[in-house]
Amino acid sequence: MSGNSELAVETLELGRRYGRVTALEGVNLRVTKGSYFVLLGPSGGGKTTLLRLIGGLVRPSAGRVRLHGRDVTDLPANERPTTMVFQSYALFPHMSVARNVGFGLALRRVAKREVRERVDRMLDLVGLTGYQERMPHELSGGQQQRVQLARSLVLDRDVLLLDEPLAALDEKLRKEMCFELKRIQEQVGITFIHVTHNQEEAMTVADRIAIIASGRLIEEGSSREIYEHPARRFTAEFIGETKIFEGTVEAADGARARVDIGIGVIEVGNRDANVRVRDAVSISIRSELLELLAPDETASAAMQSVPATYEKTIYLGLTSSHRVRLPDGAEVGVRRFSGARGTARIEPGAQVRLAWHMEDARLHTS
Amino acid sequence: MGGVPVAAGSWRRRVFGEEGLVRYVFLLPAAFMVLCFAVPVGLTLVWSVFKRTQFWMEPGLTLFAYETFFTSARAENFAYAMVHAAIAVVVSFLLGFPIAVFVRRRVPVSIQHRVILLFILPFMISELIRVFALRPVLARHGLVNEFLLQLGVIDEPISAILFTPLGVIIGDVMSFLPFMVFSGFLAMEAVQRYVFEVCDDLGAGALHTFKDVILPLAAPGIFAGSVFIFVNGLGVGLIPNILGGPGAVNAGSIVFESIVALDFPLAMAISAIMIVTLVALLWIGHWLFDLTRVLEPIS
Amino acid sequence: MLQDYRNPWLYRGMWVYLLLLVGALLLPVFYTIYISFNEHGFGAQIYDFTWDWYRVMLGNTQIIDSLRWTLGLGAATVAIAVPMGLIAAKHYKRTRHKLVLVTLMLAPLFVPADILGSALLVYFKNLNRACNWLADTLGLEWIRTWFELGFGTALVGQVLWTVPYAFIVILITMSRYHAQQTEAARSCGATGWQAFWRVEFPQIRVGVASASAFVFILSFNEYTRTNLLKGGFDTFTTVLISHMFNTGMSEDSYAMAGTVSVISMLVVGGVLVWSLARVERLEREARAAATPLGSA
Fold first, then answer.
1. Which of C42, C172, C261 lies nearest to residue B136, judging by beta carbons?
2. Model-level pTM?
3. Do A90 and C289 touch (CB under 8 A)?
4. Which domain does A16 fall in, by range?
5. Thinking of the domain C60-290, which architecture would CATH place it in?
6. How many helices (H) and strands (E) does chain C have?
């Protein structure tokens, strides 16, 4: 029954149903030892269920879970080499910070002095030195999450599971805590699996990201791969701001495909997707990789373009979104740094061209 | 990176683990309620058709007990008791429900529960003692009469309170009114406070707010409270015994007297009538209002 | 706030009405206590304070004896009804058959004392006959007295009467507990038991304690069911009622009623004050949490 021991977590066709509702189905996940792994996806997509299945808080209705090559499917949470940090309300309100952090050690009957030393060391690590005697209600949200982190890390388990640990914090604090989490993970070197619906949070902390939606594992890769080369249309749409064109393949070879998107025919690279003629496909382009060409400008040979009508510019602070309307009625935003020049002088209603470099467009069959 | 704690022995998991034998402990309360409550209460229907013997009863199929009940003065008294219980329900509603609404709407959220808890105190003192204590209050030379005489409202003590139907109704209301406050409040708790602010904002008058918003939302609670008061008013035999006049009875006291007279089938027949009435009322209520809504705040 | 525009007199009037109503509900009890301290008893024109009636009461061995039974029955009822309410409340949180369970647990509230008492009486008499028959025909002597009317049967009656209250009180306390803490404890290595005893129980202890007090008082005050099911012994309330029906309202029955009321009020009032003080503290803590001492 032993699997690959280089993997901290391995799930095989893992699934969970609640009555007639399927929360998760057929998930095969592989997490390398010592990596910071993020499960990212929309609310209700099943990512928390997956985390709880790994942690042993929920029993799978199908499939197996292996931790470090050992099958743990039938073990409850307290007998697995995992530990978990929750969204909030998970500190024991009737215990001081020190007793919260030392809870798991006290259960194992570790000597009091050793408990104290290890608790102090952990509080040090999470930056809460001197908070031992505080009660949970005397801490801010961020501090409470640090205590939870210490409570889990002090146990020296191999895998730390974090269930939306920063969701209850405000924006600024969340950014700070992201860097903290990353630093702590690098320092202790154990595997972190972190669930979130926040892309920025995911990008900040992750070595690798898995996209979970509709109870399935959509795709998995490094942050850069997920953002720049999404294989699946869902990923492209879910992450960042993306324009999707739907169309049918007119001609294709190993390198390129010509796709009819209704308002024109465009060319796109076909190395990864490998589509064939008459396939229904979608093409995704990140909004910051789109460009607007004034009527008098001509596109370079490497660029694809479609006609559009310029409508208005929406100021968003760091960036601005230049809105254009395509002949089929769809509205598209083109993102530029607000300071950048070039498109600001176009009059509303002017005919322009929406253009992009061919290699920036991704071809998806699903 | 030691990690895994020592796995508990498998026999311990088989007994104490989530899927071990210990989970059957959770079925014990329900099993107790079935064996010591549902079964005896259900069996009253069976025993009510048994034959009466001198000291006990023997299996049989006879409606003699029901005949005895319906052809004697008991049936008429029972009907009166129902009327008295119904009046007690109405009076309790009129006196108690406004409290539930007032507390939910106007009292600051942080002290609402405390105010409602004020009604726990009288509720927790034995209804026996409270009914008993009404006697000196309502008696000819009792507190109420003395007070009214002092005020000069009356010249003669009113003797028509104690040992009359009025006394019984007062006893019912004094005993069970807190329950109307509790269940009314519990139902109102399911109503978010912003609902009232919306009503005020839309300029709904007090009457409209009450009729179109409060009443439908609190209906399950009102119904639960009403059924409780009605059934207990009909079934607690002590109240007519202590406060009613000679011959004042209700289902409870008839049952008790039948037991004393060793007429067990009769006692069971009246119990059965009460149980069927209760089940029917609750079933109708559940069908009309979904009584589980009363419990929403706690689950 | 819209409240600011309302008629303040209506608001005050409702408060006055509310307090008057509570007062009216309590009035007979206080009046009884008042009479119990009058040397001349009920209806006298003069009032002389005395402890005599309580002395008479305490001198009555039957009453003292019944008090012992009452306390024993109360303790046994607490010992059974409270754990049962707790287990049922735990079960309620996890079961899918919530409606069935809650109906079963709360139904005894709706069945009047005389009805439930006599149904149980006939039930136990039947079981007793069956046991006697088994003892006679099969020689199983040891089961002969299982269902004889007595302490055990009265206990069943009292547990049925009190368990709904224990269930509700504990369930309400549990609704404030975050189940996530149990999961956190489990993922820190606690078994289900350890998570319950070390994390959940300390937080619902107030509910369990109040439930115990309420159950004890309800048992202490119960009359009808106990009277039907008790068999040979007497409790405080059965003595009181038989006094009343046999000899009318004698002065020492006022003292007995006074005793029951004062004990009830002390216990219930004590529990209320204690649990409210606790709620107060928790709220203070919640406010403190809103303004943290240090920043992250």
1. C42
2. 0.86
3. no
4. 7-228
5. Orthogonal Bundle (1.10)
6. 12, 0
